[in-house]
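Box 3.1 — From sequence to structure: Trace amine-associated receptor 1
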Amino acid sequence: MCLLVCFQQTMSGNGPETRIDHGPVLCFESFNNSCVRFVYPSEIQILFYLFFSAISLTTVCGNLLVIIAIIHFKQLHTPTNYLILSLAVADLLIGGFVMPPSMLRSVETCWYLGDMFCKIHSSVDIMLCITSLLHISFISIDRYYAVCHPLQYRNKITPPISLIMISLSWGLAAFVGFAMVFLQFNILGAEEFYFDNIACKGACIIFQTRAASTISSFLAFGLPAIIAVSIYLKILLVARRQSKSIQHSTDVGKKTSISINKTEGKATKTLAIIMGVFFVSISPFFFCNLIDPFLDHTIPPAVFDVLLWIGYLNSLCNPFVYAFFYRWFRKALRIILLAKIFQVNSSQLDLMGRRD
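Predicted structure (token representation):
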């Protein structure tokens, strides 16, 4: 889960200031262009650190279990699960690499990890967001063939095709994320305004012009969302037609048809919920990111910070969705936690059972 890092540090005259006897508290007292720091009470800081650390740790552990399950059990080596595996890797990286520095920035309200790491952190944040969006789009294509063209599914969606989808997701996302930050496409045409009015020592932000915000929001969020939602609506219509057709089918093939329909329908429903949670969690951030340049960057930094963490929570939610809807994941989870995966031939165990 994935996001443009848009936490804008407050500056003198542009946001709330924490004042002491001799003026505002600065991130770096020795620099004239230092950002202003908002100082939380120590008790609040401790609570924030505990809360954000719990989110980060739970995200890493939950997605690590998904990764281990799909890699270890051969029965789960399917094109759909390869996409789920790759999505879990992106979520794990958000929990393990993106969240901890973001936690430090959110609690301290300053960036103390250096300009180069700020660029790397921002690039990875953007990359993982776009990666997740592209995975959601490709998963919707996988579900389209599974439900709408079941006879063609095994020929159209093969493991090599899934690997191509995964490679495209990571490759395109990495190019966009690192190019935007390191080549500064986001401030193109507004460099002077940015360095004179926005940039300050102790900030780690992605400032965007109106053009950059519009283009990036459409390509990184709007277009994948339109594609995924359109495909799932098509799937819904086809599934309804199939349901009516099954009701009028002969008894000879009826049981098999119903079994296939239930299996694919359950998987499609689960992945649709994952898509819905993803879009609900990140859409407020992208909306604010889109309109902020048109409001002369007046949206409070605290609002962006809250929306940023709401978006991060999506990476925590996915393993719980799998656990709730997928019987195979619950069974795999028990086997992993009881260390039974170290037993001989444990990778050959049947996780589906008769009900899935």
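Summary of the box: Confidence is low (pLDDT under 50) at residues 1-21, 252-260.
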